[in-house]
Specification:
By secondary structure, this protein is α+β, with helices and mostly antiparallel strands. Helices cover 36% and strands 31% of the residues.
């Protein structure tokens, strides 16, 4: 496990058990550790969330807001909505090639200056943002 991931894992040990993360060292990149969890988007609906920590200058928190949600019928509406979100918020909002809708936050820090508490704060901010925007995004996707 890389130094930043070790610091994050150590911080997680201090958090109550309801904050469940599973750490996976990625085989294709022995310096990347993925901490997987989920966030409640609305009552009883949880979406995947991952914290990608490697030796680079960046740690990425990614929320898979809706999987396979973008299609030919709604693509223009969804892209317009995500573009508006990108103008209003510091998080990156986008669709990937599979039609998933994702929110990303990138946190710069080398191993020496990495602060796992900052990652936790960003996760909380993304979670609040998810809860605020999920219903509106559902409307956009459904038309």
């Amino acid at each position: 496990m890389n130094q930043k991931a070790e610091k994050f894992a150590e911080m997680l040990k201090q958090i109550p058990d309801d904050n469940v993360f599973e750490a996976r060292e990625m085989e294709e990149n022995d310096h990347l550790v993925l901490f997987q969890s989920s966030l409640e988007a609305k009552k009883d609906l949880y979406v995947p969330m991952g914290v990608f920590i490697d030796d680079s200058m960046f740690t990425v928190v990614r929320v898979a807001v809706m999987l396979d949600a973008v299609n030919d019928e709604n693509r223009a509406r969804v892209r317009d909505f995500l573009a508006d979100m990108n103008r209003l918020y510091k998080f990156k909002h986008y669709e990937n090639e599979e039609g998933d809708i994702l929110f990303d936050a990138s946190i710069p820090a080398d191993a020496e200056h990495f602060d796992p508490e900052a990652v936790a704060i960003v996760i909380d901010m993304l979670w609040d943002h998810l809860k605020e925007q999920y219903a509106e995004l559902e409307k956009v996707v459904q038309g």
